[in-house]
TrEMBL record:
<keyword id="KW-0479">Metal-binding</keyword>
<feature type="domain" description="Sulfatase N-terminal">
    <location>
        <begin position="8"/>
        <end position="382"/>
    </location>
</feature>
<dbReference type="InterPro" id="IPR017850">
    <property type="entry name" value="Alkaline_phosphatase_core_sf"/>
</dbReference>
<dbReference type="Pfam" id="PF00884">
    <property type="entry name" value="Sulfatase"/>
</dbReference>
<dbReference type="InterPro" id="IPR000917">
    <property type="entry name" value="Sulfatase_N"/>
</dbReference>
<keyword id="KW-0378">Hydrolase</keyword>
<protein>
    <submittedName>
        <fullName>Alkaline phosphatase family protein</fullName>
    </submittedName>
</protein>
């Protein structure tokens, strides 16, 4: 079908909590991802790609809207997405696509458009407006659980207990397998549903699918052969302080986060205590499982690539492979995401775009961001990205060009308010509006500014890539601290909400850009 001039198919894949360095295509010393690597050989691999926020809902809001958190204002899981914002699905629908979801988007609906008793307002796992839902698979995973039951597997424990080892008496951290096989994982189920839908699509009619995998998000367990694929003794050294107590003492936020938001049970069902209680050996066992989970979802990517080829659509399909945010995986004695460390925000991005393959097989070392996905996709399908978006189209890189005026730093934000119970506000003695941080990260320096009076952070990434020594109060670095504080302020001033600020009413009538409400 290549060269017919018809609109391209679109496949947007997110693999939840996948670290940007955990691909063999980027030179990881341990992880093997042959199917992601195969895609990269026909695409462009962006090596310095960063999430805009964490955890899931804020990160996905940046990806889906093309707006930084300061503008989309999704602060936490459960923060509603203002319905006035455009998004990637609505924009594609306007030019004739029917964006279809497999998995989840973790978007909380705007409550102002619903009755107070609407059940949609009881969960943050809503669906991004504009998507047609083919197979919803939120965290409770009920669609997958019923599928397992139909195959004769006891899935009655439900989520998350179905992800405990099938073997009674297994150690708290072990490579014991679950009740399901490699062909029965949530990723395998979702892949099968996508391929079944793909076979229903009419020849010549362009399609848009968003496959949103939960893997390699915890619980950390994986079936054979992935459970023993990696040796726990292998892997890079952890970036962390000498001891857990020293890590806690390095900043008030870390002291709070490590004590109150790092529960073992969030990562291994039923495990009591804190993540920091695990020893080096246990952290390494968990990391080996995480690597195995990455390889498991990579194996499903291979099924997807082959299915699209078998249908004859590969040469006419835009493929975007990325994640929402990353995973600390033992760095700084943490699992999960949050805070300011690269381990939480550096994510994969591979883009294959038929007709824009002059740079196929190449890598890009410039800083790119989750907010770039929406304007890039719209650019590739001939739609117009509205000028108030914070992201920039990556299409020039796909054509082997170096865009003029490209950013020389990555930025992200993290909000740690707790509106429902007010626990964080009570701990720090401040209001919800102050509980946030902003990051500017260049090749050599990272600066972190807090909104509520907590001390700033400054790292020399050349000599301290693990971010273990805060130089914010070092007299020799005060000039650098001031420079980066000013750069961060300039960034925020430039990106303040522009949805109406790029327009003006004059005697001749409205001029400039107007955000059209959906």
């Amino acid at each position: 079908m290549a060269g017919t001039g018809r609109r391209r198919n679109i496949l947007l894949i997110t693999c939840d909590q996948w670290r940007g360095d955990a691909l063999s295509a980027t030179g990881h010393p341990v992880v093997k991802t042959p199917n992601s690597d195969a895609l990269a050989r026909e695409a462009v691999l962006f090596q310095r790609h960063y999430a805009g926020a964490a955890p899931c809902s804020p990160a996905r809001a940046c990806l889906y809207t093309g707006l930084y958190q300061m503008n989309n204002r999704v602060c936490r899981n459960g923060t509603p997405l203002d319905d006035r914002h455009d998004n990637i699905a609505r924009a594609a629908r306007r030019v004739g696509y029917d964006p279809t979801l497999f998995g989840y988007t973790d978007v909380s609906p705007d409550p102002r458009n619903r009755a107070p008793g609407d059940p949609f307002l009881r969960s943050y796992e809503g669906v991004l407006p504009g998507f047609t839902t083919r197979q919803l698979l939120p965290e409770h995973q009920k669609g997958w659980l019923s599928w397992l039951a139909a195959r004769g597997i006891d899935s009655s424990p439900g989520f998350p207990d179905v992800h405990r080892p099938a073997e009674a008496g297994a150690a708290e951290v072990s490579n014991a397998v679950p009740v399901y096989s490699k062909d029965e994982t949530p990723a395998a189920f979702l892949t099968g549903e996508f391929l079944r839908w793909l076979g229903e699509q009419d020849a010549g009619e362009p399609w848009f699918a968003h496959v949103s995998f939960l893997s390699p998000h915890p619980p950390f367990i994986v079936p054979e052969p992935f459970n023993t694929m990696y040796n726990q003794a292998e892997g890079p050294a952890y970036a962390r302080a000498a001891t857990l107590d020293a890590e806690k003492a390095s900043h008030p936020f870390l002291a709070y986060h490590l004590e109150h938001h790092q529960n073992k049970s969030s990562f291994i069902p039923g495990a009591p205590g804190k993540v920091g209680d695990w020893n080096e050996d246990e952290f390494r066992k968990i990391r080996a499982l995480y690597y195995g989970m990455i390889s498991e979802v990579d194996s499903q990517l291979g099924r997807i690539w082959q299915g699209i080829r078998d249908k004859g659509d590969w040469d006419d399909t835009i493929v975007i492979l990325t994640s929402d945010h990353a995973e600390m995986m033992g760095d700084h004695f943490m699992l999960g995401k949050g805070g300011w460390f690269d381990g939480s925000y550096h994510i994969p991005l591979i883009v294959k775009a038929p007709g824009h393959q002059h740079a196929a097989g190449s890598t890009v070392d410039r800083f790119t961001a989750a907010v770039d996905i929406m304007p890039t996709l719209l650019d590739l399908i001939g739609a117009t990205a509205q000028p108030h978006l914070d992201g920039q189209s990556l299409k020039p890189f796909l054509d082997g060009e170096e865009p003029a005026g490209w950013r020389d730093a990555a930025h992200w934000e993290y909000d740690f308010r707790s509106v429902t119970d007010g626990a964080t506000e009570a701990h720090f003695g401040t209001g919800s509006r102050q509980l946030n941080l902003s990051v500017i990260r260049t090749e050599t320096v990272k600066y972190v500014h807090f909104g509520g009076g907590l001390p700033p952070l400054l790292y020399d990434l050349v000599n301290d890539p693990g971010e273990t020594r805060n130089l914010a109060n070092d007299p020799a670095w005060l000039a650098v601290r001031l420079e980066f504080a000013e750069r961060l302020l300039c960034w925020r001033a430039r990106h303040l909400d522009q949805s109406l600020a790029l327009s003006e009413l004059a005697e001749t009538g409205p001029t400039g850009h107007f955000l059209r409400l959906p």
